[in-house]
Design a protein that fits this description.
CATH architecture of the largest domain: Alpha-Beta Complex
Strand content: 15-25%
Largest sheet: 7 strands, antiparallel
CATH class of the largest domain: Alpha Beta
Helix content: 25-40%
Distance between the termini: 52 Å
CATH superfamily of the largest domain: Oxidoreductase, molybdopterin-binding domain
Number of strands: 11
Number of domains: 2
Radius of gyration: 19 Å
Number of helices: 9
Length: 258
């Protein structure tokens, strides 16, 4: 396989070609694929259902026109150190998914979503959309529901998470809470510039050293993300006891930032 040399476009963006397809590179060396990239026209497409998606959204009989994310990756000769895909979304939401997860769970990308007539589509539910196929059973978490994607950016997972690993967490519950935050919260709420900005900074919005603020955080979470909120039911991803671990992590972050 040959990788053709880069050339400079008028926009000062480099484009690397592999198998005749461009892979964009910005002036910081970041490689990415945008939602309008011609690669999506070349990949095999199929209509599928996803029990995983319908369960998370409380839908029935959703049909999704998908391409294989693994097949997309095969089109490019990526550096083996780039082990994750940062999913930049149109609404300040930001997801991330590892290459290992892409391969292990056969992750798909939906180019089109058709809901059952009785289901209501929230504003954010637009392609590109991460889809878990029915033969695959990954852990149930927010990271597998990323939608409205306009760019797939290739990164090193360790580099991306590094600003979250500097807190020196000593509490076991807080360490578990960090994983919960990575899998479910950072897509809307950033810490140390890691994550999306669709929601507010949780560390800034609440003083979690105070019991009354912890209760206010719980109340606010239920109000915004509880089971009664059909468009963004985050409570389904947290099993019994995990919310306390999330609180423990955010409290330690607050202490470190102070």
């Amino acid at each position: 396989m040959l990788v053709f040399p880069a050339f400079i476009l008028s926009s000062c963006i480099n484009a690397y070609f592999f198998n005749g397809l461009p892979l964009k590179q910005d002036n910081k060396g970041t490689l990415s694929i945008t939602s309008d990239d011609p690669v999506f026209d070349l990949l095999e497409k199929k209509w599928v259902s996803s029990f995983y998606f319908d369960r998370g959204m409380k839908y029935k009989r959703t049909r999704l026109k998908v391409v294989s994310l693994s097949n997309l990756l095969k089109r490019y000769n990526l550096d083996i150190n780039l082990d994750a895909i940062l999913l930049r979304c149109a609404d300040d939401y930001e997801g991330i998914i590892s290459i290992n997860d892409v391969k292990h769970y056969d992750i798909q990308v939906a180019l089109k979503v058709e809901l059952a007539e009785e289901d209501i589509r929230p504003d954010w539910l637009k392609p590109l959309l991460i889809v878990v196929p029915n033969h695959s059973k990954p852990p149930f978490s927010e990271r597998f529901f990323t939608a409205n994607i306009n760019e797939l950016r290739f990164v090193r997972l360790a580099d991306y998470y590094a600003p979250l690993e500097i807190f020196g967490l000593k509490n076991i519950s807080a360490k578990f809470g960090l994983d919960i935050f990575k899998n479910n919260c950072l897509f809307c709420h950033s810490i140390n510039k890691v994550g999306g900005n669709k929601g507010s900074s949780l560390v800034s919005a609440f003083n979690l050293n105070l019991d009354r603020e912890k209760q206010r955080f719980r109340d606010r979470f239920i109000e915004k993300h509880g089971a009664s909120n059909s468009s963004q039911n985050m409570s389904q991803f947290l099993v019994k006891g995990q919310f306390d671990s999330l609180l423990a992590f955010l409290r330690e972050v607050s202490i470190n930032n102070t």
